[in-house]
């Protein structure tokens, strides 16, 4: 673990780390402002596409963003990388998902593209309209980014989320080819074929490295905070790893510091322990 005696670059996972069910604790937003005022850089580092980061989510102010689990990176308003599926691979992926009856959400920098059947499937899962309901903030962002299209053919994207399919997602990925990897969903009630398809060589550390290289420093200056399996490469890359209590066991095994979850504004104490505040 490195100490914060010189400026640090702090990367924050969103869901389960910086935000709880899409809602950012006021204490977390305040802590980000204070950390930046102390001369450190703070960036969000998320599996969400850029299109799913609302003004509310960004309200604290950040030096940059890593989105799409590493496919996209932005620093000081400059886009450093925005990698998408090559066109032929994208079409092969869409065709394979269609052949297996997948209900898909196509994630791009510009929007979340869905067919009408996927929109309807989403709405069946949506909160009942109560703004205080669990996940209400997530759904506000999803609906704002969502674009209903008549076909998924020809779209540019970095990742696809599936809500269901007739085959397991790993089997579909194997049909598509080694360029694509799959992770099954952690949401218990979605069922067979639910998860994410992404470029096999892309992870959060790839996006982080683009930022760190542009800043001309090394990973020893990096602090990364996360809770889920898609944060593992992120924590391995960082000089200091912050895991979230109750997070994935492989995350906690890598943690130099363990913070309480966003429900308890746990990043505040972690930032204090690391000398950022």
Automatic annotation (TrEMBL):
GO terms for molecular function: magnesium ion binding; phosphatase activity. GO terms for cellular component: cytosol. Gene3D superfamilies: 3.30.1240.10, HAD superfamily/HAD-like. Pfam families: Hydrolase_3 (PF08282). InterPro entries: HAD-like_sf (IPR036412), HAD_sf (IPR023214). It comes from the Bacteria. This is Haloacid dehalogenase.
């Amino acid at each position: 673990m490195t100490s914060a005696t010189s400026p640090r670059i702090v990367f924050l996972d969103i869901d389960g780390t910086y935000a709880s069910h899409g809602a950012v604790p006021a204490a977390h937003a305040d802590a980000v402002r204070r950390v930046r005022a102390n001369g450190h850089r703070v960036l969000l580092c998320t599996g969400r596409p850029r299109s799913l980061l609302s003004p509310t989510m960004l309200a604290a102010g950040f030096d940059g963003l890593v989105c799409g689990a590493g496919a996209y990176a932005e620093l000081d308003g400059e886009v450093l990388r925005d990698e998408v599926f090559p066109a032929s691979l994208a079409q092969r992926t869409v065709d394979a998902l269609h052949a297996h009856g997948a209900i898909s959400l196509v994630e791009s920098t510009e929007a979340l593209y869905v067919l009408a059947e996927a929109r309807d499937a989403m709405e069946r899962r949506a909160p009942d309209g109560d703004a205080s309901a669990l996940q209400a903030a997530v759904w506000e962002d999803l609906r704002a980014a969502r674009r209903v299209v008549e076909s998924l053919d020809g779209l540019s994207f970095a990742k696809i989320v599936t809500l269901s399919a007739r085959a397991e997602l790993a089997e579909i990925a194997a049909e598509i080819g080694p360029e694509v990897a799959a992770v099954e969903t952690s949401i218990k009630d979605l069922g067979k074929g639910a998860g994410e398809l992404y470029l096999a060589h892309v992870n959060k550390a790839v996006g982080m490295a683009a930022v760190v290289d542009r800043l001309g420093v090394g990973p020893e200056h990096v602090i990364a905070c996360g809770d889920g399996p898609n944060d593992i490469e992120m924590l391995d890359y960082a000089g200091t790893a912050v895991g979230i209590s109750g997070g994935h066991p492989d995350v906690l095994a890598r943690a130099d510091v363990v913070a309480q979850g966003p429900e308890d504004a746990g990043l505040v104490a972690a930032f204090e322990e690391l000398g950022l505040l």
